[in-house]
Amino acid sequence: MSGLTHRNTPEARAFNEALGVIGAVEPRVADAIRSEINDQRSYLKLIASENYASPAVLMTMGNWFSDKYAEGNVGMRFYAGCQNVDTIEALASELACEIFDAPYAYVQPHSGIDANLVAFWAMLAAKVEAPFLDDQGVKHVNDLSEVDWETLRHRFGDQRMIGMSLDAGGHLTHGFRPNISGKLFEQRSYGVDAETEMLDYDRVRSLAHEFRPLVVCAGYSAYPRKVNFARMREIADEIDATLMVDMAHFAGLVAGGLFTDEYDPIKNAHVITTTTHKSLRGPRGGMVLCGVDGEEFAPYIDKGCPMVLGGPMAHVMAAKAVAFAEAKLPSFADYSQRILDNASALAEGLMRRGLRCVSNGTDNHLVLCDVTSFGLTGRQAESALNDSGVIVNRNSIPSDPNGAWYTSGIRLGTPALTTLGMGTSEIDEVADIITSVLDAAEPAKAKNGPSRAKYLMDTGVQEKCRERAAELLDHHPLYPQVGLI
């Protein structure tokens, strides 16, 4: 790639020297790492849940904090010698509170599912366990009799939650049976209007009043619109439920000041969970925050370890602190705005070229596309694009006739290409590459008719699209300061 040179920068020296150390022990690992960065430099990354962390964030994860056990909380550890872990955890929490304007942040969760589990159990502890302990006149579950403990355990299992349906853009961790959250709660789903493909808040309200859940879960992984969290809070308040928002996908847009007022989860929800990568552009990890009037849950969230979590990953908490410091910079707000601008340009470019976008566009970082008009399943479109230099993921669309495996759609996101510095003109070129691939691909034949997995495509078209993708990446290289590895 002509946009990359092996520069004598601190980052280039550090990464190359690190790979030399790794390769001296196990060269296959070093080779896999080199292959990964070369692969990432060779594809247009449109996975909505992925991004590129900065060299500073990446370097922070490879440090001596990895060797330290630190169960507990700042100043209250179950291990000695945790003063430095206390420093970085306190700093990460402080910075998280600053960038989100939140009263409390818990930065220990290892992932998004861990963050959600901590939040679920904190809400159960606050709303079910604590009142029960008060009724029994005890302060700790260990003080309960066996009979009373069994009664409390059954009450935990009797609780209900509502969340967005999977085909409307919800997430498995929002109470669905294959995930532990679905085994924890009795769940019902709310969807989108069949015509507009947008949330129908009146239907959400009707479901909430009929089902009477303990938790109203909002947030999404494949819904291309903003959610009015003020209205969701009104619904939760009407039935004395707790509003939890999973903002894993759009946390960077909140930190960048773009989701405000009724669309700001911090201002409207009791409890907020998130990952720290995706649009926030940090390390892979999770976090739980309290909303402006949700601090009553903080003492229970603080018990995430040992309630749900094991030893916190101090090296990742350190990287979270670095990422949060980056998110405080004025440039991050500009970056967040460019994510939205690029997503809008992508949706407009695709629709102009005949690809249907769910809800006719987007007002967040992702675009959900229906590829059936091109005669393809989502799986075929995903494979054809991958082989043509564009990484996406297949995804269900509302009322998807092809189910969750083959799907009828693909999900596209702009955080990663925006990190590379691409703007709306480059994104329009990306839209043209995508529709060129979809137009040239067709289902392969199977024994009983058209395949739903395999595709056929003219190799000339495929190679041309790869060349066009490579040209864009050549002008916007990944980690130019690192040089060639």
How many domains would you count in the coordinates?
Answer: 2
CATH architectural type of the largest domain:
3-Layer(aba) Sandwich
CATH topology of the largest domain: Aspartate Aminotransferase, domain 2
Shape: globular
CATH class category label of the largest domain:
Alpha Beta
Query: How would you name the CATH homologous superfamily of the largest domain?
Result: Type I PLP-dependent aspartate aminotransferase-like (Major domain)
Order of strands side by side in the largest beta sheet?
Answer: 4-10-9-8-7-5-6
Structural category: alpha/beta
Write the layout of secondary structure elements.
Blueprint: H1 10-25, H2 27-40, E1 44-45, H3 55-60, E2 72-73, E3 76-77, H4 83-100, E4 104-106, H5 112-136, H6 146-157, E5 160-164, H7 180-184, E6 186-190, H8 201-211, E7 215-219, H9 229-238, E8 242-246, H10 251-255, H11 265-268, E9 271-275, E10 286-290, H12 298-301, H13 304-307, H14 314-327, H15 330-352, E11 356-357, E12 366-370, H16 378-386, E13 390-391, E14 393-395, H17 403-406, E15 409-413, H18 415-419, H19 424-440, E16 442-446, E17 449-456, H20 459-475
Helix pairs in contact: 1-2, 4-14, 5-6, 8-9, 15-19, 19-20
Describe this structure in words.
It contains 20 helices and 17 strands. The protein is an alpha/beta fold and 485 residues long. 47% of the residues are buried. The longest helix is centred in the N-terminal third of the chain and has 25 residues, at 112-136. The strands form five sheets. The chain has a seven-stranded mixed beta sheet, sandwiched between helices. The chain folds into two domains: 65-327, Type I PLP-dependent aspartate aminotransferase-like (Major domain) (Aspartate Aminotransferase, domain 2, 3-Layer(aba) Sandwich), CATH 3.40.640.10; 331-475, Aspartate Aminotransferase, domain 1 (Alpha-Beta Complex). The protein is 46% helix and 14% strand. Helix 1 (10-25) crosses helix 2 (27-40), helix 5 packs across helix 6 (146-157) and helix 15 packs parallel to helix 19 (424-440).
